[in-house]
Amino acid sequence: MQAHSQETSVQAELVAVLAAVSQGQPRVLTTECARALPSGPLEQAHRSLQMGMRAWVEAQTQHPLGYVEQLYTFADKGRFASQGERVISVSYLGLTREEPLPQALEVGWQDVYRYFPWEDWREGEPALLRELIWPRLQVWALGDSEGDGSTGFDPAYSRAQRRAQRWQRACYAFGMEGAAWNEDMVLQRYELLFEAGLVPEAQRGADHAPDWGEEGPLGLPMRHDHRRILATGIARLRAKIKYRPVVYELMPPEFTLLQLQHAVEALAGRGLHKQNFRRLVEQQDLLEESGGVASGGAGRPAKLFRFKGNVLLERAIAGTKLPLARG
Question: What pLDDT, in 10s, does the model give residues 40-67?
Fold first, then answer.
């Protein structure tokens, strides 16, 4: 559907971030050979934005959708399609379980950290940060670049003040100069890398030419600003697991406590203290034993659990903090 004005037309794009956890890894459903998220234009036949999004996802991937929520509407100046229409992207976050896909080479599940390798702290601080990201951010922040005007600098700021503010933002987002790493700041970190010109997407022209860039140490680029949309979805999911039992949507009907812990760790990108995690789960009273045990593996079989029925009613977990393991 397009709304026409004297200057240009506007096209509404519907985009889906579909997240799953498989074998302890966070996954996202992609199209165009891992370079895009499922998406398509809003059409006259669509009864609503969400119904349109569901129609495109199922047509492109044949994957059924369960829980979805609206994520964010991207309408920044400069978002144009190849024919010159201004594009407004309405994005949704969906939680699901990975299922086999049709034999289509352009559709597949990808590891989230393939796009954001600096976000995976489960084995400790990624070497990529000190070896590449921090030095390049320092050069950008303290260099002569005045930026593109998108960072909200007061025009009255001196060049030195702008440098100091850029460096402060970089330190806060990426945990430098004594700042703590905040796992929820996925979007802020990606946008800083974009602003600093360190990701291939920052080098594209306004026409979004198909030269998307090769996969490198800073991850796999995506078409248009789909990696930015994916970063927004992962940030939302990381924040939500701290106060709502949304991980329910990602787990099989029965699971061990270790499988549940690995799923939360996969999403958060952080290692969790095992005993504190189990104590937290017990305190929140979300689970019950199913009566079964896990098959295979060495040692004593682990008990299987399932979420209690009241979790289906979206019971809130107010003020929960992840029990991070100490490195």
Answer: 888 888 888 888 888 888 888 988 887 7
Distance CA 157, CA 269 (A): 37
Closest CA to 196 of 137, 146, 151: 137
User: Hey, what are 82's tokens?
Assistant: 């190849």
Cβ(222)–Cβ(115) under 8 Å? yes
Cα dist from 215 to 114, 118, 150, 325, whole Å: 9, 14, 26, 31
Ranges under pLDDT 50 in the chain? 1-6, 147-151, 206-210, 315-319
Q: What is the DSSP string of 40-69?
A: EE--TT-SSHHHHHHHHHHHHH------EE
Alpha-carbon distance 325 to 244, whole Å?
21
- E-strand spans in 2-153? 2-4, 9-22, 25-30, 39-41, 68-74, 86-95, 108-111
**Residues 255, 304 contacting (CB under 8 angstroms):** yes
Give the amino acid at 199: V
- Measure the CA–CA gap between 281 and 260, rounded to whole angstroms: 10
CA trace torsion 264, 267, 270, 273 (10° rounding) = 0
Cβ partners under 8 Å of residue 142, min gap 6: 163, 166, 167
Amino acid identity, position 299? G
Q: Measure the CA–CA gap between 130 and 1, rounded to whole angstroms.
A: 47
Predicted local distance difference test score (pLDDT) of residue 301: 86
Type and span of the H or E element at 10: strand 9-22
Q: What is the pLDDT of residues 92-106, one digit of tens each?
A: 999 999 988 777 778
- In 242-297, which ranges are continuous DSSP H helix? 257-268, 274-284
Report strand pairing: 86-95 vs 9-22: parallel
Where do we find the tokens 């701290």? 242
Tokens of 326: 């100490």
Amino acid found at 37: L
d(CA 142, CA 157): 15
- DSSP code at position 239: H
Pairing of strands 25-30, 9-22: antiparallel
Looking at residue 24, its amino acid is G
